[in-house]
Amino acid sequence: MERVYLGGTCNGSDWRARLIPLLTEVEYFDPVVDDWNDEAAARELYEREHDEWLLYVLTPLSDNIYGVAEAVDDSNKHPGRTLLCVLESDGGKRLSPHQKKALRMVGKMVEGNGGQVFRSLEEVAAFLNRIDR
Fold first, then answer.
1. Under a CB-based contact definition with an 8 Å cutoff, are residues 97 and 34 in contact?
2. What is the sign of the dihedral through the CA atoms of 36, 62, 128 and 126?
3. CA 74, CA 1: separation in Å to the nearest integer?
């Protein structure tokens, strides 16, 4: 069974908990751990190299610019495996107009590199669950 790496926004976002039940045809790796240490970092790098899909979900709760860099970097290194989903609202917050514009441009970079961009978790799940991609 294929596996998807669940990267992107942490910071109290529940997007992973909402997406995981929708994934019926793929396994997943959730890099979020209570104690980030060298072992957790090594496992994350391993999964990013070996999982069939690299998903980055960016939401208004993100305070980590590195997640954007990871998504763009992986779309360069692994274009056919990189997926980006931008959620305009999360945890009662909404993206500002400036954030929306900037993340649209990030999405264009990811697509230009050969990755795919989605606007909802349901779209991501539908893509990942399709066996005949």
1. no
2. positive
3. 21
| 110-132 pLDDT, tens digit each | 999 999 999 999 999 999 999 77
Which H, E and C letters describe 45-95, residue by residue? HHHHHHCCEEEEEECCCCCCCHHHHHHHHHHHHCHHHEEEEECCEECCEEC
Give strand pairing partners of 93: 90
β-pair partners for 23: none
From residue 125, alpha-carbon distances to 20, 64, 96 in Å are: 9, 24, 26
The two beta strands, 82-86 and 3-8, are: unpaired
Residue with tokens 């751990």: 33
Instruction: Summarize pLDDT for 69-120 with one digit per residue, the tens.
Output: 999 999 999 999 999 999 999 999 999 999 999 999 999 999 999 999 999 9
Nearest to 27 by CA among 52, 1, 50: 1
